[in-house]
Each structure stands twice: as structure tokens, then as C-alpha cells.
Amino acid sequence: MTELLPDRIRGIVLERITPTEIEIQTQKDTIQKVRNALIERGNEIGVSYEFIEAEGSTGKKQTQIRGAADLDIFIGLVKSDYEEILNSPNEDIDRNLSKTIDELVNKWFRPAAETIRASDIKKTYAQHPYLSFKLNNLEVDLVACFALSPKELATDGPITAVDRTYHHTKYMLEHIDEKIRENIRILKAFSKASHAYGDTCAVGRMGFTGYVLENIVVENRTFSQALDAICTLSDNPIDPLNRSKKELKKIPRFSDDLFFVIDPTDPNRNAAASLSPRTYRWMVISSNRLLDAIRHDEEDFVIRQILYTDIPTNPLPSWIKSHIITFEFEKIKDTHYTIIRDKLYSLAELTQRWLTKEKTGEERFGTTLCEVHFRENRYALGIVVENPKISDYFERRGPPTNLEDACARFKAAHPDAFEREGFLWVSQKRNHTNAQEFTHWILSKKGIDDIELARNITVLSAELKTVLYHYVMPAESFVIEPEENNVYLQE
Fold first, then answer.
1. What is the DSSP letter of 244?
2. Span 153-172, mean pLDDT?
């Protein structure tokens, strides 16, 4: 497979994104320190385990890019020690496992973290509890999983959602060399630069995960071939069993999935199931731009596309400003960011529906797109709307004129109804004619307990406006032309 990315550009990029020796050594030292503390505490309380090792990009795989500051340390539990729980009724297993893992976090993980003077120690919840803390300026997660054999995983599936992670590491180590590791790093850097990476991506709810990108590179070997694979992923699944998209969609668990990167350690799992369509479409646009620039030897542009920079906050064209609305929120409860993110996306979907159409189905403000952007304790909801201001009245369609009883009832309720094109119609006054004011009303009625509207705005709102105009609108093929003659837009 021919690599299109020139060696000169490759060298410049790798020099910028490859972790420094100091970074790698700090990560290794921190992992060993945590591991020793867990072993010592585990011996004190007499708990057994199969392994304690760092997984993910900063673990044995070493596929991280410079600046990675998170360590995921997995503790492999012995399955036979928990047979009583695992043999209980299905409806009780998850609850009992959570209770047991919670005890391990309290009696094993937390004391181990305290002995090495970790800071910001807190219990966090996913499917089951885990411990998070900071050490040596790194974010560390201690996660309990079950040490399953490849045969057990293939035959019975995982017990918890994280049981596959250990096998992901083993698979990658068997299938990557230094060249492929470099290509993985370049693809991860490009995904981050496109703001389409992971669960904090700026475009869409869920971006490309590190594991999905690793598999795309392993399957395609070169960076440019990996970009091509991303561009065709909607039609061409990546599957170790070489099943077509049509075949995969016939499998009940995959029937609703749009993109497929099948986990090579578990053919019953689609690692790309959570990838947002909007994120994918934007990544295709970004990938095609990059491939085109590579083919035309546009060196500076290629480098800029691959290396991460903050989202620009340059002013948008004056004509689009009235079409873009943003609201910023402050976090007021200690809730995990993914929970707030998901609640805010649900609120965004509701807002989009209400802005688009009247309750009776007629157009309200027209085509509307929403996006969520967040960082630390700040969250922002952004909206781009086709018609930010609309008329006071709209024509509501009633029943067909051949339905006499329905028409009689409609006319009784609306004496001024009139006939047109085989239906009754009535001119109805709107409650809301300003998109920004209506959105504010929605947020006041359907607020989220974990956040509140901020009194001041930050750079987050300016970034979100850029995301909406430069990323989301192209991804959704949404075009708004300047409307100089629209009386409702005139101040």
C-alpha cells in the first residue's frame, strides 16, 4: 500500500506529536508507583487478582500523542472468586457486581491512592464504580474488570463493558510495528485537529475513539489509506470476518448501526456504534480536504490540518450573525461531564424540533441545527436557524373539505376559516416570533438541574459559533444565503 504523505511532512508532524522521553518516563514511573501501591494494599486485605496493568494508548500500546495526560490502570479480577454473584438471577447480577466493585474501590483502590499521596481522589461511575485521582500531573483511573480468556470472551461475551480492554491491548501489540504506531499517532492527531475525536469532540455528540482509529490504521497500514477508509466507511465496514454492511445490518444487535468497525477481539461488538453521523460527515470533509492537499503538495496546509490548534474565534460574516444563537451554562453540581453532555444534547434535540415547526406541523423558524460545546465546568448550546424572525401569523391547515363532520367542527372552532386546494385553512397568531427569545423560553421551562444559565459568556460561545458556521453547516449541507429583503430580519 503506497503512502501518499511525503516523508518530509511526516517527519515534521511526528516531531511535534510524538511524546517526549520525559513524558513517557513520567507515565511509566507513575504507572509503576500506582501498581506497587495496589499490590501492597491488595496483599494487606488478601484480595486476589490476575493482573494490574495500564491499558489504553499510554499503556503497553504506546499509541498516545504528545500531551496525553491520562492513565487507565486495569485490575483483572479472578472470575471464580465471584461465581456466587455471577450465578445469581440476571436481573440481580449488575446490581450485585456494582456493590462488590464499590467495596473494592473503598477498601482497596482508595487506600492505595492515599498511600502515594494522590490528589483529587474521587469515586466515579460508569457501568460500575471506579476511582479517579491525580498524580504527577496525570489523570489516573483505576478500573476493575474480569480477567477472561479469549475463548471465554468469544463464547460468552464480557461480564462488564471493560473486560475487552485487556484483549484490545494484546491484539494491538500483535499487529503493530513502529511504522504503524506512527501512523496511528498521525491519524489521532488529525482527528483531534478536526475536533472529531472522542467524547469531547466539538462536532457531534461522539467522535472517533482511539481504538476505532487504531483498528482503521491496522487494517489499512498507511496514513493515507486510513483516510480513504474513513471516507468510505459508511458503505465499507471494517470487519475481521469480511461481512458486508448488508450482512451486518441483518444481525439484530447491529440493525440500527450506521458505521462498522468490528472489534477484532469480539465479532459481536461494533466499536464504531456510538460514532455520530454529523461527526463522521465532518471527518469525511476534513479527510478529503487533507488528501487533496497532499496530492497537490500543499505542505503548509497539510501540516496545519494535522496539528491541533484551538478552535478559531474570528468574527463571522455579518449577515450570518442573526442566524446563530448561543447560550452558555455553568456547572452547579458534581455530575460527570458525559451525563451533562447527554442531557444537553437531549435538550438541544427538543429545542430543534420546537424551533423547526409549529405544534400543528407547519413551518416555524425553518431548518434548525443545534450543537453542544463544553470545557471543564462550562457548557454551551448553539443554534443556527434559517429564519431568526418570523411573521406574527401563519396559515394552519385544517381537514380536507370532503370530510363534512370534521369541517363543521373546524369551522365552529374557527369561524374565519377559508377553503383552498381542497382543505380548510385558518390564519393563526403565533406565540413566538423571535428564535432567540423562544429558545430562552424553552430553556427556562426545560432546564437541566446540573447546570444554570451563566451571567457572562466566555470564549466557549465564540468557539461554538465557529463550529456551527464552519463545521456543522458544511457537515449537514445547510446553506443560508444573505436575505437583504427579508423584512423580519431588519432591525
1. -
2. 94
pLDDT, position 485 = 44
Any idea which fold 318-392+430-489 has?
Alpha-Beta Plaits (3.30.70)
* Every domain of the chain and the residues it spans: 19-175, 176-309, 318-392+430-489
The residue written with cell numbers 473494592 in the block is: 104
Angle (CA) 125-126-129 rounded to 5° is 45
Terminal-residue alpha carbon distance, the chain: 59
Exposed/middle/buried for 33, CB within 10 Å: 0-12, 13-18, 19+? middle
- Which of the listed CATH numbers 3.40.250.10, 3.40.50.1110, 2.60.40.1190, 1.10.1410.30 matches domain 176-309? 1.10.1410.30
pLDDT in tens, 204-245: 999 999 999 999 999 999 999 999 999 999 999 999 999 999
* Torsion, Cα of 88, 94, 96, 99 (10° steps): 170
* pLDDT higher than threshold 70 for residue 490: no
Residue 369 and residue 478 in contact, taking contact as beta carbons nearer than 8 Å:
yes
Beta-bridge mates of residue 429: 393
Question: Residue 1's pLDDT is what?
Answer: 67
Q: Which three cell numbers stand for residue 228?
A: 480513504
Long-range Cβ pairs for the range 266-272 (8 Å, 24+): 266/153, 266/154, 266/157, 266/158, 266/164, 266/167, 267/154, 267/239, 267/240, 267/241, 268/157, 269/164, 271/209, 271/211, 271/212, 271/215, 272/208, 272/212, 272/233
Segment 11-39 shows an average pLDDT of 98
Q: Strand ranges (DSSP E) for 363-474?
A: 368-375, 378-385, 393-400, 418-420, 423-429, 451-453
Q: What CATH number matches the domain at 19-175, 3.30.930.10, 3.30.420.340, 3.30.460.10, 3.50.50.60?
A: 3.30.460.10
Q: What is the spatial distance between Cα 254 and Cα 248, in angstroms, rounded to a whole number?
A: 6
The β-bridge relationship of strands 324-331 and 451-453 is antiparallel
Angle, CA of 463, 476 and 303, to the nearest 5° = 55
Backbone torsions φ then ψ of 146, nearest 5 degrees: -105, 135
Neighbours of 36 (CB within 10 A): 14
Provide the sign of the torsion angle of the four alpha carbons 439, 441, 443, 446, taken in this order: negative
